[in-house]
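Chapter review: from sequence to fold.
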Amino acid sequence: MTTRLEYPFLWLSHLQAIALCGVNNDFADKHIHQVPNFATILLDPRQVPFPQTIEQLLLLLSDINNISQRTSLIEKLTETAAEHRLL
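The token string follows.
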């Protein structure tokens, strides 16, 4: 059986990985360059949709040119996701 969402729960790992980049320097050193890709995957229409505030932050994080703001965006995303009980 094929579903519209295929595997709609990548946020279980990808959102956690983005948040870890904001709190663990060793993890961030290895994976912060992947944050735009993680954000893009989470915005895929086959994934479970997020609240609009989280989607807006993911859109900003998916922009590879937004390097200077990446740390503050990760912090804001982590706070907002926690408020929505996603982290």
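Two observations follow directly from the output. The chain has five helices and no strands. The chain has one domain: 11-83.
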